[in-house]
Amino acid sequence: MPDDLTPTARTILGFLALHPRSGYEIREAAKRSVSFFWGLSDGQLYPQLKVLAAAGLIEAAGASEGPRAKQVWQLTESGRAAFLQWLREPSAPLQTRDENLVKILFAAQLDPAEALRLVAERRASFQWFLDHLDTIVPRSTWTEAERSSSGPTPDLIRDYGLGFARSALAWCDSVEATLRSKS
Amino acid sequence: MPDDLTPTARTILGFLALHPRSGYEIREAAKRSVSFFWGLSDGQLYPQLKVLAAAGLIEAAGASEGPRAKQVWQLTESGRAAFLQWLREPSAPLQTRDENLVKILFAAQLDPAEALRLVAERRASFQWFLDHLDTIVPRSTWTEAERSSSGPTPDLIRDYGLGFARSALAWCDSVEATLRSKS
DNA sequence: CTGAACATGTAAAAGGTTACATGATTTT
DNA sequence: AAAATCATGTAACCTTTTACATGTTCAG
Predict the structure, then answer these.
(1) How far is the CA of A93 from the C1' of D19 (A)?
(2) Which of A66, B86, B129, B131 has the fewest other C-beta atoms within 10 Å?
(3) What is the pLDDT of residue A51?
(4) Which of A13, A125, A167, A180 to mutate to test the interface with B (most CBs of B within 10 A)?
(5) Direct distance between the N- and C-terminal alpha carbons of chain A, in angstroms, rounded to an integer
(6) Whether A34 contacts A45, CB under 8 Å
(7) In the structure, how far is the CA atom of residue A25 from the C1' atom of nucleotide C20, in angstroms?
């Protein structure tokens, strides 16, 4: 079980652990689920699929015909083992790059009015996120039978995004109140 | 006002906009404030200071003696202009890489017991964060007079971290409940 | 005088994004 | 027949991290 895989390769392994898919399907699934806490770009996805295949962790399921035909990938046995081992390894610490927040913290000390504008920008971006949650992470509307087979995961993602956005918006409220009381 | 600066260079500009400091002081300030939503490593900091100096946006304040003496930097006029312009440009979208969360979402569908372990890992990391918030972002204990000159910023950072960690812990609670009810 | 904290820097590699390029299939 | 979407891929670039390297100052 190679431990020289990139974090992104491991994530791809995770998508294939649920069921076999093509690169494009992984891309779409990533867009609709993990996109807001784990980015996955084309320039990573397709090369990493080849890396995983070369390492014997995934294999083509069925023959692909034509030069650009859809190619479905599935985990090999050692691929599944690598996936399970990944789950047991300590996770990389959470990383965030939040430029808007950095700006707010500098602006608040120099120019409260500018800071208020930046808080408005922040509020808008989280509000947009809430308004489009159904697009980003479709609400699961399955029956109980379907749900038990698919697991609670889609709703967990939604809830996480929801909680995060709400807490960010609440923070915007309190910052606005603080800045306004100073001016 | 060059728009080819890296995001990190702009952040450095922000630190110097508050007051002149040395590279080491920027590093320490970043560690104690923005570290959890904006990483800043040595390998970036010192080279970027030189880039900013070469671009005429910062300059040495006073002479530095000796080969490894402390060097204090301050904004030039055009540096301050570049900083203010940065504040007005649209911010890069929030980016996050949350490996633990990715694992949980895959594991929940395959192995609820493993997922529970991962939620425990998540809980521990956010609990650690809360327990060490005073180290990461020192609580401001200034008088009102001091506070008004320094602005409300340090407390805003604290509050943001606090809200984020609390909402993450609440999510852990609800995921544990969901997963336990399934098994 | 020895170790910890202060202080600055470099080189190489990893990881990721963007833009570009191509072609198939489906819809209008 | 054109446009949108499906589908895969490459090359260049950018940013950031990691590991290394060096010297200073202060406290015990």
Answers:
(1) 19
(2) A66
(3) 97
(4) A167
(5) 60
(6) no
(7) 22
- Read off φ and ψ for residue A16, nearest 5 degrees: -75, -20
Looking at the domain A7-88, which fold is it?
A: Arc Repressor Mutant, subunit A (1.10.10)
> How remote is the C-alpha of A135 from its chain's centroid?
14
Q: Does A176 touch chain B (CB under 8 A)?
A: no
Chain A residues with CB under 8 Å of B14 CB are 102-103, 106
Please compute the mean of the pLDDT values over residues A118-135 and round it to a whole number: 94
Minimal CA separation from A57 to chain B, in Å: 17
Q: Rounded distance, CA A74 to CA B82, Å?
A: 51
What's the pTM? 0.92
**Residue A14, both tokens:** 């995770």
The yes-or-no verdict on residue A166 having pLDDT over 70 is yes
Q: From the list A14, A101, A157, which residue is nearest B160 (CB)?
A: A101
Return the H-helix or E-strand segment holding B84: helix B77-88
What contacts A114, CB < 8 A, 6 or more positions away?
A: A107, B84, B87, B88
DSSP string of A43-110, one letter each residue: HHHHHHHHHHHHTTSEEESS---STT---EEEE-HHHHHHHHHHHHSPPPPPEEE-HHHHHHHHHHHH
Q: Which residues 80-119 of A are in CB contact (within 8 Å) with B?
A: 83-84, 86-88, 90-112, 114, 118
pLDDT of residue A75: 97
Q: Do B103 and A118 touch (CB under 8 A)?
A: no
Type of residue found at B23: G
At a CB cut-off of 8 Å and minimum separation 6, what does A150 contact? A140, A142, B109
Partnered with residue A95 across adjacent β-strands are B97
Residue, of B134 and B177, whose pLDDT is higher: B177
Would the Cβ of A68 be found within 7 angstroms of any atom in strand D? Answer: yes
Which of B93, B97, B159 is facing A95, going by the closest CB pair?
Answer: B97
> For A95, which of B39, B105, B168 is closest by C-beta distance?
B39
Q: Are A45 and A103 in contact (CB under 8 A)?
A: no
Q: Which of A83, A31, A115 is nearest to B84 (CA)?
A: A115
